[in-house]
Amino acid sequence: MLEVDSLYVAYGPVTALRGVSIKVEKGSFVGVVGPNGAGKSTLLNTIAGVVKPKSGSVTLAGSKLSGARAEHIVGKHLSLVPEGRRIFGQMTVLENLQLGTTVRKDREQARTHITEMMEVFPILGRFRDRRAGHLSGGEQQQLAIARALLARPEYLLLDEPSAGLAPVIVDSVFEVLKRLHNEGVSILLVEQVAHRTVETADHSYVLQHGNIVARGTASELLQGGLLEAAYLGAD
Ligand code: ATP
């Protein structure tokens, strides 16, 4: 289990997280939704070790992650798809995908999975030899997700993967996430697209102004009106 306990994060005078606790059981699909500036990216970046918390802890299967260097965390157990699709623009699509498999030892299977990713995201197959920097934003997002998946992480962390994508591509992103979940990958999905996320995840948290203000299954959050309340109360 991935466990975040009482995380408190500040950027100088700006407090981004005010004692956030969440749990991602192994094999589960957990959503974190909330309005702009709620602290969603900060939460993921702190779990991945990119941002250091002021207090609180992140533990994975009982071992403390907080304080470990990002590169020791990401790649070993967790794979983060950051906001804003950081791909290597000068490298080809195929080279970007191959980079995603460098942490793996099963080279032969890794090659098969690259081919699989090109079937899941056909555009990546079509443009495999094209420089990634020449792809559109939506295509780059598909590449960023595919690359993270190729590390075959136990926990896949995604920061707003649907941002800026055409609806049909958003559908395929959610389909891929559901499939991975069925295959046993634990997923922590941070999104502004609240309804869809809550309906897809087993369990979701609503973040507002750095606090968890609601949590539950889709029916608990939707029937209780908790989701709307969090978004309406945000401004
Ligand atoms: P969005 O959906 O807009 O990405 P978010 O929910 O991911 O928002 P964060 O990006 O985590 O929210 O930001 C939380 C708060 O921390 C905001 O008030 C934001 O302005 C602030 N913040 C984030 N990064 C920094 C930074 N590097 N320096 C200063 N303040 C920051």
TrEMBL record:
A Pfam family of this chain: ABC_tran
CDD domains xrefs: ABC_TM1139_LivF_branched
Residue stretches making up the ABC transporter domain: 2-234
A molecular function GO annotation: ATP binding
Transcription regulation recorded as keyword: no
GO biological process: L-amino acid transport
Keywords: Amino-acid transport, ATP-binding, Nucleotide-binding, Transport
SMART domains: AAA
Similarity comment text for this entry: Belongs to the ABC transporter superfamily.
UniProt name for this protein: ABC transporter ATP-binding protein
Organism this protein belongs to: Ruicaihuangia caeni
